[in-house]
Amino acid sequence: MINVALVGAGTMGSYHARVVSSSGRAKLARVIDGYEPVGRSVADRYDAAWSQSLGDLEGIDAVIVAASTEAHYDLAKQVLEAGVPLLVEKPVVNDYEKSREIVALSASVGVPLVCGLLERYNPAVVTAREIVESPIHITSTRHSPYAPRIKTGVAWDLLIHDVDLAINMFDAVPVSTGGALGYFHPDSQVGAEDVASATMTFSNGQVAQLSASRIGQKKDRTMTVHELDKLIEIDLLRRNVTVYRHVFADAAQADGRGYRQQTSIEIPEITNAREPLAAQFDRFVDLATGQADAEEERRSILPSHEVISTLIATSRLEQSRA
Fold first, then answer.
1. Residue 128 and residue 98 share a domain
2. pLDDT over 70 (residue 252)
3. CATH classification of the domain holding 108
4. What gap in Å lies between CA 105 and CA 92, rounded to an integer?
5. How far apart are CA 85 and CA 110, in angstroms?
6. Residue 239 pLDDT more than 90?
7. Is 149 in the same domain as 263?
């Protein structure tokens, strides 16, 4: 049983608190939040201590940072320099060079680091990865209604998940990244994009086309993986998978009007329907207790951060030239 400190008791932090407290492998020992009514409420709910700042980590075996993205850099440095394993919500930092610095610090002090790229643990994604064999083209849609509490742009907030999934599906890092950013909502901070579109190409010609938006009128989380002989459709919200195989296509009528198609459909069983946050926490505990490869975990963090950084830099450069 390890003692866990949670930094940030907002919406995501409260979810982490519930998962830690119900895991059976950890105790939520401390909740840190600068706003006492929120922090103390979560702490009291799970019989944990509350404090206003991180302070001394004596007696703490692992830390989860679910504070605002702007606070990640300083908090991550403090935790890692104290020699305590860290799970930090995505992105590590909304700046690639600073994210590299944090990952390098984790390696230099020999302390495990996990980034909260939660969709890796989505049961539909886990099932799809067992089915995917030779992907050649991936498309994704991650759209949401506007959420004023999110200060960072949609690329760091939403698109990073699908970039990470595509990299893992292809088991390769992209050789080029392009795309565009859109700025539309009057309540968004200056420089925080509301729409992001990315195209990634890989060394063997594979292509991923990913779309994220926070000005949608409904929540949509879908990914489609194309192979030569099948199409795997992943619904990340409903957590199901459908596999399509084309059989036959022809005109519906003799004069060529209309279209008729025959397609086989397979609905694979989702064998592990565990909550992604709980599965991620188990992975974190394994790393914190030396039961998983911390270096492998570190290597998996930066590729998606580099893609987002490149997309933002190139898009802004093109816009400045327009």
1. no
2. no
3. 3.40.50.720
4. 12
5. 9
6. yes
7. yes
pLDDT tens sequence across 179-218: 999 999 999 998 899 999 999 999 999 999 999 999 999 9
pLDDT reading at 321 higher than 70:
no
Locus of tokens 């199409």: 231
Number of independent structural domains in the chain: 2
For residue 316, tell me if it sits in a domain.
no
pTM here is 0.94
**Structural domain that includes position 69:** 2-116
Spatial distance between the Cα atoms of 229 and 251, rounded to a whole number of angstroms: 22
Last-in-domain residue among 249, 273, 297 = 273
Return the percentage of the chain with pLDDT > 70, whole number.
96
Residues 9 and 26 in one domain: yes
Say yes or no: 131 and 240 in one domain: yes
Query: Tell me, what DSSP letter sits at residue 292?
Result: S
| Band (148; pLDDT cuts 50, 70, 90) | confident
CB 46 within 8 A of CB 22: no
Specify the 3-state DSSP secondary structure of 290.
Answer: coil
Tokens of 174: 């992209």
pLDDT digits (tens, 9 = 90+) for 288-318: 999 999 999 999 999 999 999 999 998 876 6
Query: Do 88 and 15 belong to one domain?
Result: yes
Residues 45 and 126 in one domain: no
Q: Specify whether 252 is located in the same domain as 141.
A: yes
Domain assignment of residue 268, yes or no: yes
Please check whether residue 303 lies inside any domain of the structure: no
Identify the pLDDT of residue 256: 67
d(CA 210, CA 222): 10
Choice between 243 and 316, residue whose per-residue pLDDT is larger: 243
